[in-house]
Design brief:
The structure is a homodimer of 283-residue chains. The first copy, chain A, is an alpha+beta fold and 283 residues long. Helix content of chain A is 29%, strand content 29%. Chain A has helices at 22-26, 44-58, 68-78, 123-128, 151-163, 205-217, 264-282; strands spanning 2-5, 8-11, 29-37, 40-42, 86-93, 111-118, 130-136, 167-172, 175-179, 183-188, 191-194, 221-223, 236-241, 245-252. Chain A is globular and about 55 Å long. Chain A starts with a strand and ends with a helix.
Chain lengths: 283, 283
Amino acid sequence: MIAYYNGQFLESDKIQISPFDRGFQFADGAYEVVRYYPNKFFEFDAHMERLKYSLSQLDISSVNIERFQEIFVELIQKNELFDQSSIGYIQITRGVQFPRRHSPDPVISPTIFMYVEKLSPNKETHANGVTVGLGEDIRWIRCDIKSISLLANILTKKGAVDKGVYEIVWSRNGFITEGTHTNVAFVKNNVVITPPLNSFILAGITRKVVLKLCDELKLQHEERNISVEELNTMDECFLMATTSEITPVVKIASSTFRTGAPGKVTMLLQKEFQKNIHRNKLM
Amino acid sequence: MIAYYNGQFLESDKIQISPFDRGFQFADGAYEVVRYYPNKFFEFDAHMERLKYSLSQLDISSVNIERFQEIFVELIQKNELFDQSSIGYIQITRGVQFPRRHSPDPVISPTIFMYVEKLSPNKETHANGVTVGLGEDIRWIRCDIKSISLLANILTKKGAVDKGVYEIVWSRNGFITEGTHTNVAFVKNNVVITPPLNSFILAGITRKVVLKLCDELKLQHEERNISVEELNTMDECFLMATTSEITPVVKIASSTFRTGAPGKVTMLLQKEFQKNIHRNKLM
């Protein structure tokens, strides 16, 4: 596989990250996962806006974000994925610093790593839905930054897999936040409800598209706090993410929420999401 | 510099970390910094016990911790640091996984990186003390794990440097936790007071040694919650860490705590700490 690293296109196994990269030693970096549907990257500008935000919060500057789209296109071409549903990954760290010190050296240059990979959403989970569990949100309080400091997400996701559920939906102080790599929404009396944007959740791109689709479909929607107790009163639930798009939730473990099948509004949004991808490609 | 990487001693600039190392992409790993005072590693077993604990919490297994002391000794020899005050760094990640998925692949092997570096405590800050600031603890709630998921520590430490203070001492829900890379203790009426061990702070090795020294010196000590309001009533304050040992705090910004000079009990403990290093080396 050909990947991109600091200005060069290289076989990915030729790429040498320094053990003194602050990404490796301190999780001092940000990332994005973008979606490629043949033959266009989806919501690319929104991803780059979020990346800019993450980098600004980390105070990592002198990154030329404008070039990333053409690099991704070149990666798609070099890896012959032009007609394949794929993802693009970009990770930017503060750079290499020796000797190791917590305090960042202001003169180091960022490390940039990008690659693309063939990946299609899982048709089975899209059609039939998934079971999720609930858990206390153990993360830091700057979840609005899409950082590589992901150990809390990893340990919780590992716990989900060990328990045989697709995802854990977190709550903080009794209110739903999001999943380990997904945003979450509910439907109650045909109203789509999702937690509001704040520093406890990531401003998901798929979440943003879903809210836009609600407007287009004249579906009422609310961004508001949702208590764990309220889950049992919800009619539908679904997850939103760049890779898994809109995935219905048919059961929430340790709650009485179980629908047996994906909800009607969920499936309507899923269908519109696919139409929107197609529209987007033609633009 | 000769470092150690997955079974080999190599020039550190020859070490290639894969961009698919879970340490680089997910901060999925743990680390330790150990102290070498010629000619012995200090409290080595305590560091390895803590490393074992961190790895167990991450469910990273098949790491042969018993070999690490001899590897560190070999690194000291190869880098001719035998008679130099130094530190040893060890980082263990879950390993390389491609394609990138949050959920860990159980069959991958851990990545092990170790190096040594000449480093002496700062005599000036030891003698004259430092100013620290206060801040809300923004971290996750598993600060008992010495993980490489350190972005919260980095951003806070960067803020400290930007403000011109040595360290930020965090509080959570109004109670003092610790600094970004130090534990903190206070002295009030000759009683040494430090926050209790729980998942909000790291079980510091220097902290443990200081409490043992208090016993030997028949200095009363308490491990208890300390409210931010209480800081103004404290007589002394000091930081504890493997690298910076016992560092007096002479001023806490945005509080009325300022002593003008390091406290008596602090300096007594600092002296005993040096004696203890010497005793330890002879054992």
